[in-house]
Specification:
alpha/beta; Aspartate Aminotransferase, domain 2; 2 domains; two-stranded antiparallel ribbon
């Protein structure tokens, strides 16, 4: 039996009519780059996150890159990154010429901790990328204490933790900036790779100015391009730029913005408490290990297991 990499059919069924209607409205209105749908999505997502504002860009990697630029990271800087994450988290550093330094994770929650961060601090450390994974926030209080002590920037990668909260505060608003991905496999997916950067701080303005020049005209593609409708549908790749050039940090398309709004209304009721999620994962891990050991023991002592089955009448 061939198992597909991704099958969202069941999730799409109850939203299908709403999604197609939204997409048709965007198509009929000829709103393919930026436009009303993107503005509405940015406002709606900011409200959902408890932020003052958000900026839509083309993918999570772009968002991390833009944040690194906005925070002034560059060559000679060390950026602490979880050892267990997608490679884009490390690209936060490399795309601006900084060096990623990998920190271990807490095996119970799969996130970095204050202790694992402290173990890899260097005199050149300038920022920490905290990845909130599987909807479970990292222990931010202790992490922020280290950052305040050392004068470090904190970037929250919330690509898999939409609408999660840490001590009643939304993730993405605890550090200096937060990034969210809407890749189809994420907790809150869209039809493409749209991303919002949410933060109630001047960093949002800096990021916005990189995406949309103040005079409102499109800059040359080699500098900063915009996301077209066909790019949103296909999911544009994001390649590492030369360090002396700025990568195409592109804006969110109307289609992705409209679809993400539809998906957000569906996912809000499905956010699992972090502690419950951790308990579920531990139980699944325990069950898997138990089955594995039973298989090993059966291989080594088949007669013993056969006798047990006969005694129990199974």
């Amino acid at each position: 039996m061939k198992v597909p990499f991704l099958d969202l059919t069941l999730q799409h069924q109850p939203l299908r009519d709403e999604i197609l209607a939204a997409w048709a409205a965007t198509l009929d209105g000829n709103r393919f780059c930026l436009g009303r749908d993107v503005e509405e999505f940015e406002k709606a997502f900011a409200v959902a996150c408890g932020a003052n504002d958000s900026v839509g860009v083309d993918n999570g990697t772009s968002a991390l890159h833009l944040v690194a630029q906005a925070l002034g990271l560059g060559p000679g800087d060390d950026v602490i990154v979880p050892a267990f994450t997608f490679i884009a988290s490390a690209w936060t550093a490399t795309y601006v010429g900084a060096r990623p330094v990998f920190a271990d994770i807490d095996p119970a929650h799969y996130c970095v901790t204050a202790d694992t961060i402290r173990a890899v601090l260097t005199p050149q450390t300038k920022a920490i990328v905290v990845v909130h994974l599987f909807g479970q926030p990292a222990p931010m209080a202790a992490i922020l204490a280290i950052a305040a002590e050392r004068g470090l920037k904190v970037i929250e990668d919330c690509a898999q933790a939409h609408l999660a909260q840490y001590r009643a505060r939304p993730v993405g608003l605890l550090g200096d900036a937060g990034t969210f991905s809407f890749y189809p496999t994420k907790n809150l997916g869209g039809c493409g790779e749209g991303v919002a950067v949410a933060r109630s701080a001047p960093a949002t303005l800096a990021i916005s100015s990189m995406v949309v020049p103040p005079w409102g005209l499109r800059r040359p593609a080699a500098d900063r391009g915009r996301l077209g409708s066909h790019q949103a549908a296909l999911g544009p790749p994001y390649r590492a730029p030369p360090q002396d050039r700025v990568a195409p940090s592109t804006g969110l398309s109307d289609q992705t913005g409209h679809l993400a709004i539809s998906q957000r209304t569906s996912v809000e009721g499905e956010v699992v408490d972090a502690a419950d999620a951790a308990r579920i994962k531990r139980l699944l891990l325990l069950g898997g290990m138990t089955i594995l050991w039973m298989a090993i023991l059966y291989t080594l002592f088949p007669n013993f297991f056969n006798n047990v089955v006969m005694i129990l009448g199974l």
